[in-house]
Amino acid sequence: MPAKIRLQRQGRRRYAFYHIVVADGRAPRDGRYIERIGAYNPNTNPATIDLDFDKALDWLTKGAQPTDTVRAILSYKGVLYKKHLIGGVAKGAFDEAEADRRFEAWVADKEAKIQAKKDRLSKDEESTKAKQLEAEAKVNTDRAEAIAKRNAELAAEAQAANAPEVTEEVAEEEVVVEEPAKEEAPAEEPVKEETPAEEPAKEEAPAKEEAPAEEPAKEEAPAEEPAKEEAPAEEPAKEEKPAADKEEKKAE
Question: Of 3.30.1320.10, 1.10.260.40, 3.60.9.10, 3.40.190.10, which CATH number belongs to 3-66+76-129?
Answer without folding.
Answer: 3.30.1320.10
